[in-house]
Amino acid sequence: MARDARQTAAPATGEDSAADSHLRFIYAALLFATAGGFALAIWLPVQAALGHMDVSWLAAAQVHGHLQVLGFAGLFVLGVATKLAPRFGGGRLRRPALVNAAFWCLVAGLLARTIGQPSAAHAPFALLMAGGALLELAGATMFTVSAALTLRPSVAEGAPNALLMLSGMAWLVVQATLGAVWFSQLALDGAGVLRSDRDGLLVSVQFYGFLLCVFSGVGLRTFPSFFGMPQPSVRLGYATFVLLQGGLLLWVGGSLLVLADVEAGWAIAAGQALVGVGVLTLVSTFGWWRRETRFAVASQPLAWPLRATLAMLTLTGLLLGVSGIEALARGGAISGARFDAIRHIFALGVITQGIVTMAQLILPEFASERFVRPPRRWRSGALASALVGAVVLRGFVPLLG
Fold first, then answer.
1. What pLDDT was estimated at residue 191?
2. Which pTM does this prediction carry?
3. Mutual angle of helices 123-156 and 96-116, in 10-degree steps
4. Which of 251, 89, 252 is closest to 166 using CA atoms?
5. How many other C-beta atoms can be found within 10 angstroms of the C-beta atom of residue 235?
6. In the predicted model, what is the mean pLDDT of residues 343-363?
7. CB-based contacts of 371: which residues, under 8 Å, 6+ apart?
8. What does the alpha-carbon distance between residue 275 and residue 277 come to, in Å, rounded to a whole number?
9. Cα 365 to Cα 5: distance, rounded to the nearest angstrom
């Protein structure tokens, strides 16, 4: 594995380099984050403080979460996957026209839902909301087809990292399918707020099905070499894959049964525990706690933010595993407050911090400073400190009550 951004990001083929299809995903992700997700993150609390909390506020809150998870993190991860999938598959990006079409469908779908959901009581906006969900399903499906064709050689050989990345794309389609069905039903009812249990399931599939599995596939291939660990055995990679996928199937299947008024809380708790154990199995291969690193000199300042990211991933796995086992033992479910805290530890500590750190390690567009002059070391420390501080306030404090 390459040891700095110049090596890691070097294109595998001329065709892959000419496409540069990952850039549009990255730019769109940053635009959705700044103009949509972060702006709503400021506006919503202000409106709540002023007492302006009505149905449209609740709809806007769900839009904010969707923009942050799929508009920012989702598009960014898809951009990175577009760059890395040809390397993991040992060839070139297959069906790039599908990737281009997927990009426009996803962007149009996100915009349609953002505009339509807060005013879905009016028929034209309800139609826009449902159309946005259907466009997201089309985009997710097309991207997954291209990813499957690109990763097929490695998947056929049984490479665990390729299996994990492809499983993440499959979960992207699953959540898009659920969203298309549920938002179409909302549109028919003239409503604009998704039930909290359905919304929570969608977010869980997006986080732990899509984002976690893609992150795991990338990490299994890259992180051990960063910290001087031997490449994980294929059996350990398979164990991670089976634990994560088995846990997710139990978790999602049990949640769907509960939505249908069937008692299946045990399946949800067992699934969450298995996902936690899968995460701990994964991070055991990384060696992030080791003092030794194999970062290039110019990349050394990024070691600490990456350590912080993987420490938060370890904590996420530990909390999910322990909480799921406790819930299973008492025949209940993880409390809403604890689960929300775990989700924010993962969202801020792993996804947000991981995106910022890995972008500088992998993508030349974010690593250009290191090519011309030594990077300023204080910025990486400030980044890790700020995001860990946010995790403490939003994750640990609620856990302590």
1. 87
2. 0.86
3. 150
4. 89
5. 9
6. 83
7. 6, 298, 364
8. 5
9. 10
* DSSP structure string for 373-390: SPPPHHHHHHHHHHHHHH
Could you please report the per-residue DSSP string of 33-59? IIIIIHHHHHHHHHHHHTT--SHHHHH
The mean pLDDT of 372-390, rounded to a whole number, is 64
Give CA–CA dist 57/286, Å, rounded.
42
Alpha-carbon distance of 287 to 289, in angstroms, equals 5
Q: Can you state the angle between helices 75-89 and 353-362, rounded to 10 degrees? A: 40
Average of per-residue pLDDT across 140-154? 93
> In this predicted model, what pLDDT tens digit does every residue of 119-128 receive, in sequence order?
888 899 999 9
CA nearest to 164, candidates 201, 212, 206: 212
- Reading the block at residue 159, the tokens are 């490479």
Alpha helix (H) ranges present in 190-288?
A: 196-204, 212-226, 234-259, 265-283
Token couple for 257: 């049964």
CA nearest to 176, candidates 133, 221, 118, 208: 133
The size of the chain, in residues, is 401
- Block residue for tokens 């099905």: 209
| pLDDT beyond 70 at 91 | yes
